[in-house]
Amino acid sequence: MRSGRLQTLGTRIVGLIGILTLALAATAGVSATTTTKKFTFAHEVKIGGSKVAGGDYALVVDDTQLTVKRGNKVVAQVPAHWVTRDTKSDTDSVVYGSDGQVIEIRFAHQNEVLVIATP
């Protein structure tokens, strides 16, 4: 009788540990791939096919996509990725392509830059 209870308890504990492990793995995966940075554009810029007015924004990078948000409103989405450079940027800055599109966003005191895919 006693060994039956211990076996049932052991099975429940193993199941609970499995569920907790999966939950922690899922949480770690989500937080590891999403980065949010605050950024101020001094004037109107083009990101992807969208015009983005000058002002303060949240830049959310999730895996290979940049989402530009002002408050809760998404104003632009475009493929993007992080690239590590040899030197750190002194200030927040934007690099433009020949057509005026934003192709790179640099962050002060960081050597990682956000490279944006152009349409």
Briefly, what is this?
The chain has 119 residues and is of the alpha+beta class. The chain has 1 helix and 9 strands; from the N terminus they run αβββββββββ. It has a domain at 34-116.
Structural class by secondary-structure content: alpha+beta
Instruction: Give the percentage of residues in beta strands.
Output: over 45%
Low confidence ranges = 26-31
Largest sheet: 7 strands, antiparallel
SSE diagram, text form:
Elements: H1 2-33, E1 34-41, E2 45-47, E3 50-52, E4 55-62, E5 65-70, E6 73-84, E7 93-96, E8 102-106, E9 112-116
Antiparallel strand pairs: 1-4, 2-3, 4-5, 5-6, 6-9, 7-8, 8-9
Structure description:
- This protein is of the alpha+beta class.
- The chain has a domain at 34-116.
- Helices cover 27% and strands 45% of the residues.
- It is built from one helix and nine strands; from the N terminus they run H-E-E-E-E-E-E-E-E-E.
- It has one helix at 2-33; strands at 34-41, 45-47, 50-52, 55-62, 65-70, 73-84, 93-96, 102-106, 112-116.
- It has a seven-stranded antiparallel β-sheet with strand order 1-4-5-6-9-8-7.
- The longest helix has 32 residues, at 2-33.
